[in-house]
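Mods, move this if it's the wrong board.
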Amino acid sequence: MDAAADLSELGVAVRASAARLAMLLRRVRRADAPALGSWDLTDLAVHVAHVLEAVTALARGGGPLIDDLWELPAFTTMLVDSEGERDLAVLAGRIEASAATFVQVLEDVVGGEPLPWVVAGVDVVAETLAGQVLNELVVHGWDIARAEGEVWPIPDRHAALVLDTFLLPIIGHLGRSLVDQEEAADVWASYDVRVRGGGRFLLRFGAGDAVVEPVVPGAGPRGAPIDCHLSVDPAAFLLVAWGRASQWPAIARGRFLAWGRRPWLGLRLQALLRNP
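Not the wrong board. Structure tokens:
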């Protein structure tokens, strides 16, 4: 699939996910239900609205928001605390409108063109920004639905798009800053991560750093032999990666499969990376 097709598919997924989240927000009964850390359901809706607006500005060529990834929690908390709008119906409309604007902006972006990301010094392609927006809608939609006591199935294709265009590429961009230095101190390992219904990536750890490379379809990973091959269900992997679910049920149900020279390394992958 070429870059233009990727952007088109991502745009459709973003608008569909925004409409789905807006529908959920309009029927919420417990606006103050605990949702994520110290945030309640409304706080989280505010955060999603902010992210969509910020990423749209980035897609238009705006500058980065922070100098270091680990400034992000304090920065987003400050934004949420300073937001005056708390009406969920208004926030739902704002999220839908921002998603539509973002997709329109994408139509004017050339696939592969470097754009500034949230963190200074990191440039990404438009597909990564679209994957970030889709990630916010899908994962925080799951958080909000859980707070409201509803089920939020994540479409496998949407999860695969997030992994392929955002999560795995961003690990590659940020490298060492996302590695748990204590956990990874003695780890030299290579992972061949195969996203079911999605892409394939080579993830290498060594000297406290992480390197990610996409694997060209039809070709195997380059370089040294692979330690651990992983076949992952995209929705399950997404939730585990963001700390929303345990890896053990996914393993028990065959949603994560590991093989190779050192298959036990599959159990350590989540612990090697930090979430901001």
